[in-house]
Amino acid sequence: MFTFFDVHTIFFTVGRQQVSYLEVVCTLAGLVCIFLAMRAKTANFWVGYLYNLLLFPLFLQKGLYSSMLLQPISFAINMFGHYRWTHPRANEANNRHELKITLLDNRRRWQVLLAVAVLTVGLGAAVSRLHRWFPAVRQAEQPFLDAFILVVILTAQWLSAQKKLDCWAAWMTVNITNAVRYPFGGLLFLALESFAKIGMASFGFLHWLKKYRKEQIDAPENIG
To answer: Is the dihedral of CA 186, 55, 58, 63 positive or negative?
Structure first.
């Protein structure tokens, strides 16, 4: 019987590269999601939920287990971010009653970088041994690189959920790395999506920076 999760086995060919229709849909959903986030639109979370659900079976098929396991966690962070953006505390709201864009201080930035390094090593080591613990599971592809991407994505999402301008540095790191590694994993369309996201992340940073500066000027303590 045909099910939703069988979609990842349906392919068409681009040159000599097989591409699943599920990958194409994931690509479109990812681009729409980042476009809405770039514009600081709350609707990005609704598209993000769909994106997480589609990526899970796609990464399962490709043996990218860290990225696969990321999706339920990512879904939960999206829910948290959705709530934070739409229910800011009084001192966090801008004049449109939305969560304000803010920045990490230098101490918090170093803490984030240290956490990324430690979690990448720990997760990469665990994923590289996954096939030994569960013989039915195929050996992981690029376990430490996959782990690094997972950790940086979670960092970017956590910062995005709190509307930290710093999130765009993390997203840029993710997109550049994915643009290089996806073709080697047989994910042609996701590689093209990552290249597009590099440009979109640049515009997203500039748009958020403009909003951040305007919100600083419009803050009650700066008025009157």
So the answer is: positive
Identify the bridge partners of residue 64 per DSSP, sorted by sequence position: none
- Give the domain ranges of the chain: 19-88+102-214
How many CB atoms neighbour CB 118 within 10 A? 11
Mean pLDDT for 14-36 is 76
Token pair listed for 125: 């080591």
- Evaluate whether 148 touches 124 at the Cβ level (below 8 Å): yes
User: Is residue 172 pLDDT above 80, yes or no?
Assistant: yes
- pTM confidence score: 0.78
How confident is the model over 207-218, as pLDDT tens digits? 999 999 988 876
Q: Alpha helix locations (H) across the chain?
A: 21-38, 44-62, 65-86, 106-128, 130-133, 143-161, 167-181, 188-218
Instruction: Please report the DSSP string for 114-128 in residue order.
Output: HHHHHHHHHHHHHHH
Structure tokens at 76: 């939960």
Q: What is the pLDDT of residues 65-100, one digit of tens each?
A: 767 877 899 899 999 999 999 888 878 877 777 899
